[in-house]
């Protein structure tokens, strides 16, 4: 018995040990499974107001976005939790939180409103997010990101505006330098510089450049909106004596601008506003501000600086001692304080202009005229850096050009009044490095005068300079000419997206033409993240819009009021905000621009007669095909009033769309009643009973079809007439700026995709590939900027870097790769992948980085099979459309379609198979 009892006790102990081990094992397996689940779902790429860790914002309710990452298919977010703290160290532990959202049942992961207490000026806020998905997974907390507030009230500016004591009356002058010495009396903990200027500024502290931004404070409607920037300058400061120096350039504020040597369009005197806020380790604070204690001098090395005409730099006048404390500035003059309004100051919400690609010379040329020329191989925008040696007082002059003429000589006639000239005078102290400061050039070639030494990639290089937009889209095909066209489109965008969307970057113009911007916006949004860029520009459009609702043709507006209000240009006020909403799902921007949109459409309505727009189109179908030798028998002139009425219809439809999205039912109903009236007026005025338009041009039919103006029963024959017109011109386009963006879209929509491909792949003038075959590396302003015989078009209007015709890029993404946004589920929460091969292409590969993640459409035709690889980001959905096939003929990931995917998400419509899928990677295959 005792043995039995002993054994029983031992057995109980053994059972307990096993149970304990089993419990431990279960706990371990549970923890392991939780870890696996966590690893299968992650949150990353957090942004605030489209930016990574933005500093100095004045958006009082910032919006937060994040992306989900999972290897699994069909992942959607079911809930999220946000937490915000003012303390970096405690937020990761969940301590000392300013605000937590708690678990919110929502799939929203883009532009989520901060919902905590009112935000304070200068404060940095740290934030994290975690999410739940539809598979029961919980992500780990994301990495900690932050945003920092700027100055939310004009009262918080303690600095004074300062200027030079003598008035310059707007005359070109050497760049003034403003200087101040100060002492940091204790150990520093934090140092923030808030700075802006009339003109452009470059700031230094103790000789080190503040930030890596250029052309600050940027170009805005200066009298209504002047941006300031915020910099963390703690690394530039030291305990004890410090010195700051700010140099100003004329820039857009008072430099040469628009045409005919106009200058001083915003003001005659440069000015600086500088507020440096110091916080010491013991918590005490100190301000270093611009005031009458500062000094200035014109005796700096920048003797002349202008955006159009370049820079003259005399290195003999360099004195780097002025950057450092202890410099004897007794010969410098005292500044004067200026009474300039600070209420128009706004935090910069644009992406800054920065240096990007570096180009080395690809060819050294001695022209027939005997001039020394360097070819960088790419038409770019930026400047050239030199590292050369010369005698004191010797000079080197750089001129910039986009092309060489037929004989191979340097060509600058198309620059009109812009000199694009940089001049450097040597100090004579060994190898000297220099690049300009307040100017940029558009060029592929430079001509060098005054230097006889050796030039190579070690001492001459070119920098591409443009707004710091992240690349979002890539596109390539089996056709090298199309790939070069895509390259040209992207480089046209880079060169002309320097703070504002300019028409061209080289001649005496470089203005923010509204028509150019609106036709190119969709292509721009494929290629790069332009959300911040256009948010800023649209605010200036709204600011410069006339009181009666009329819209200037350039933004910021520097033209006379009489140039305002031309159809297709002023319609940027409606077209861009709507397309922005489609691309980014930004309802707040649509709301902020709504009154501007409405004012423009109401202006057309109140000035119209019998529902016909009287706005007109001053520029018509700008730079449409006009024959010189009458090869095809006629030109392509489209009635300007027809264009105006077509865009009246389009803008009215966009008002309906916007009003419905924003819940403005009364407005939506108003415009729904107006729309059929103006369509009817179009038909009475410009359409014959048999369906022929009074202007029998490609542009006329394209606009009427693109904007759904024609009655349903007349659309098919209108498309037929469009195709007949194209055939009359031997499969060439004849459209200008207005018709070109929509031409291939209309052809594809009405069943003429083969014709669209013929136009795209046409290699003779007029066509896109004619430019490519002529050696273009950007898109030209004119179809025949360089003619077939090697001569040039009109020198007064002939830019070789002008993105408007690059609007074909949208069709290439949407039709060749098939990646299309969804108007009804904006921001690519839902999208379509529906490639439509043609033109003998055997493959295409496109990617698009959206706010949800990366979309990919990669297809090829091989051995009689069409193979499509599609990627759908987590928390989004896609509709895949495969043409000319059946369900039974399709495989996905090696299985029959019905085995791989749910039958309820698959249907056939005509010759198309439509497949709805969730996130994940997919591989489709069918006969072709």
From TrEMBL:
<dbReference type="InterPro" id="IPR008928">
    <property type="entry name" value="6-hairpin_glycosidase_sf"/>
</dbReference>
<dbReference type="InterPro" id="IPR013737">
    <property type="entry name" value="Bac_rhamnosid_N"/>
</dbReference>
<feature type="domain" description="Alpha-L-rhamnosidase concanavalin-like">
    <location>
        <begin position="366"/>
        <end position="466"/>
    </location>
</feature>
<dbReference type="GO" id="GO:0016787">
    <property type="term" value="F:hydrolase activity"/>
</dbReference>
<protein>
    <recommendedName>
        <fullName>alpha-L-rhamnosidase</fullName>
        <ecNumber>3.2.1.40</ecNumber>
    </recommendedName>
</protein>
<dbReference type="InterPro" id="IPR035396">
    <property type="entry name" value="Bac_rhamnosid6H"/>
</dbReference>
<dbReference type="InterPro" id="IPR012341">
    <property type="entry name" value="6hp_glycosidase-like_sf"/>
</dbReference>
<dbReference type="Pfam" id="PF17389">
    <property type="entry name" value="Bac_rhamnosid6H"/>
</dbReference>
<feature type="domain" description="Alpha-L-rhamnosidase six-hairpin glycosidase">
    <location>
        <begin position="471"/>
        <end position="816"/>
    </location>
</feature>
<dbReference type="InterPro" id="IPR016007">
    <property type="entry name" value="Alpha_rhamnosid"/>
</dbReference>
<feature type="domain" description="Alpha-L-rhamnosidase C-terminal">
    <location>
        <begin position="818"/>
        <end position="894"/>
    </location>
</feature>
<dbReference type="Pfam" id="PF05592">
    <property type="entry name" value="Bac_rhamnosid"/>
</dbReference>
<dbReference type="InterPro" id="IPR035398">
    <property type="entry name" value="Bac_rhamnosid_C"/>
</dbReference>
<dbReference type="InterPro" id="IPR013783">
    <property type="entry name" value="Ig-like_fold"/>
</dbReference>
<feature type="signal peptide">
    <location>
        <begin position="1"/>
        <end position="38"/>
    </location>
</feature>
<keyword id="KW-0732">Signal</keyword>
<dbReference type="Pfam" id="PF08531">
    <property type="entry name" value="Bac_rhamnosid_N"/>
</dbReference>
<dbReference type="InterPro" id="IPR008902">
    <property type="entry name" value="Rhamnosid_concanavalin"/>
</dbReference>
<keyword id="KW-0378">Hydrolase</keyword>
<feature type="domain" description="Bacterial alpha-L-rhamnosidase N-terminal">
    <location>
        <begin position="186"/>
        <end position="357"/>
    </location>
</feature>
<dbReference type="Pfam" id="PF17390">
    <property type="entry name" value="Bac_rhamnosid_C"/>
</dbReference>
<dbReference type="Pfam" id="PF25788">
    <property type="entry name" value="Ig_Rha78A_N"/>
</dbReference>
């Amino acid at each position: 018995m005792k043995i039995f009892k002993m054994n029983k006790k031992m057995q109980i102990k053994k059972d307990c040990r096993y149970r304990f081990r089993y419990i431990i094992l279960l706990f371990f397996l549970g923890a392991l499974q939780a870890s696996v689940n966590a690893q299968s779902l992650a949150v990353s790429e957090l942004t605030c107001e489209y930016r990574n860790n933005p500093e100095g914002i004045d958006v009082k309710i910032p919006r937060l976005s994040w992306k989900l990452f999972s290897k699994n298919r069909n992942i959607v977010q079911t809930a999220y939790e946000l937490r915000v703290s003012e303390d970096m160290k405690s937020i990761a532990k969940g301590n000392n939180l300013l605000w937590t959202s708690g678990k919110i049942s929502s799939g929203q992961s883009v532009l989520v409103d901060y919902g905590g207490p009112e935000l304070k000026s200068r404060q940095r806020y740290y934030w994290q997010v975690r999410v739940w998905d539809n598979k029961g997974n919980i992500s780990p907390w994301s990495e900690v990101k932050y945003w920092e507030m700027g100055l939310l009230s004009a009262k918080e500016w303690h600095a004074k505006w300062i200027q030079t004591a003598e008035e310059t009356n707007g005359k070109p002058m050497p760049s003034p330098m403003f200087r101040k010495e100060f002492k940091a009396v204790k150990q520093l903990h934090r140092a923030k510089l808030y700075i802006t200027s009339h003109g452009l500024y470059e700031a230094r502290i103790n000789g080190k450049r503040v930030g890596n931004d250029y052309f600050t404070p940027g170009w805005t409607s200066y009298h209504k909106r002047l941006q300031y920037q915020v910099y963390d300058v703690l690394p530039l400061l030291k305990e004890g004596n410090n010195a700051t120096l700010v140099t100003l350039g004329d820039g857009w504020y008072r430099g040469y601008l628009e045409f005919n040597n106009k200058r001083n369009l915003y003001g005659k005197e440069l000015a600086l506003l500088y507020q440096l806020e110091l916080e010491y380790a013991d918590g005490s604070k100190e301000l270093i501000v611009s005031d009458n204690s500062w000094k200035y001098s014109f005796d700096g090395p920048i003797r002349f600086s202008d955006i159009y005409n370049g820079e003259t730099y005399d290195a003999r006048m360099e004195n780097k001692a002025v950057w450092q404390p202890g410099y004897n500035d007794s010969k410098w003059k005292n500044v004067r304080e200026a009474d300039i309004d600070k209420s128009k100051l706004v935090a910069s919400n644009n992406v800054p202009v920065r240096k990007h690609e570096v180009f080395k010379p690809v060819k050294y040329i001695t022209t027939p005229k005997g001039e020394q020329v360097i070819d960088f191989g790419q038409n770019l925008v930026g400047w050239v850096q030199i590292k050369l040696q010369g005698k004191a007082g010797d000079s080197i002059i750089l001129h910039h050009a986009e092309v060489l003429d037929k004989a191979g000589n340097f060509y600058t006639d198309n620059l009109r009044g812009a000199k694009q000239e940089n001049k450097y005078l040597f100090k004579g102290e060994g190898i000297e490095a220099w690049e300009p400061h307040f100017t940029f050039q558009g060029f592929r070639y430079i001509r060098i005068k005054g230097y006889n030494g050796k030039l190579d990639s070690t001492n001459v290089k070119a920098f591409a300079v443009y707004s710091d937009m992240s690349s979002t889209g890539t596109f390539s095909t089996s056709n090298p000419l199309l790939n070069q066209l895509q390259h040209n489109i992207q480089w046209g965008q880079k060169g002309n997206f320097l703070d504002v969307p300019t028409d061209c970057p080289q001649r005496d113009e470089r203005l923010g033409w509204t028509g150019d911007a609106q036709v190119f916006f969709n292509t721009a949004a494929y290629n790069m993240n332009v959300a911040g860029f256009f948010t800023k520009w649209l605010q200036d459009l709204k600011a410069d819009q006339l009181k009666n609702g009329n819209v200037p043709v350039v933004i910021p507006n520097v033209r006379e009021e009489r140039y305002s209000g031309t159809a297709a240009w002023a319609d940027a006020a409606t077209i861009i905000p709507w397309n922005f909403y489609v691309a980014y799902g930004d309802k707040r921007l649509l709301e902020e621009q709504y009154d501007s949109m409405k004012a423009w459409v109401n202006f057309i309505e109140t000035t119209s007669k019998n529902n016909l727009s009287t706005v007109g189109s001053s520029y018509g179908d700008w730079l449409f095909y006009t024959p010189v030798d009458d090869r095809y028998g006629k030109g392509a002139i489209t009635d300007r009033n027809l264009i105006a009425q077509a865009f009246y219809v389009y803008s009215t439809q966009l008002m309906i769309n916007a009003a419905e999205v924003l819940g403005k039912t009364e407005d939506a109903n108003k415009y729904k009643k107006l729309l059929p009236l103006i369509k009817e007026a179009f038909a009475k005025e410009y359409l014959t009973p048999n369906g022929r338009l009074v202007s029998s041009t490609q542009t006329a039919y394209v606009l009427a079809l693109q904007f759904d103006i024609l009655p349903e029963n007349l659309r098919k024959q209108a498309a037929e007439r469009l195709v007949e017109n194209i055939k009359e011109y031997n499969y060439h386009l004849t459209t200008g700026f207005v018709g070109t963006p929509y031409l291939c879209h209309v052809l594809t929509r009405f069943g003429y995709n083969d014709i669209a491909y013929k136009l795209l792949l046409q290699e003779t003038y007029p066509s896109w590939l004619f430019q490519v075959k002529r050696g273009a590396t950007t898109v030209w302003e004119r179809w025949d900027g360089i003619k077939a015989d090697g001569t040039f078009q009109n020198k007064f209007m002939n830019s070789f870097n002008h993105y408007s015709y690059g609007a074909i890029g949208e069709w290439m993404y949407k039709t060749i790769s098939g990646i299309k946004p969804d108007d009804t589920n904006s921001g690519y929460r839902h999208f379509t992948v529906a490639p439509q091969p043609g033109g003998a292409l055997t493959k295409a590969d496109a990617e698009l980085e959206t706010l949800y993640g990366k979309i990919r459409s990669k297809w090829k035709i091989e051995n009689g099979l069409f193979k499509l690889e599609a990627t759908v980001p987590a928390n989004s959905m896609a509709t895949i459309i495969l043409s000319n096939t059946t369900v039974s003929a399709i495989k996905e990931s090696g299985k029959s379609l019905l085995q791989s995917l749910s039958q309820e998400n698959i249907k056939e419509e005509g010759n198309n198979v439509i497949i709805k899928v969730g996130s994940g990677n997919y591989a489709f295959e069918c006969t072709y």
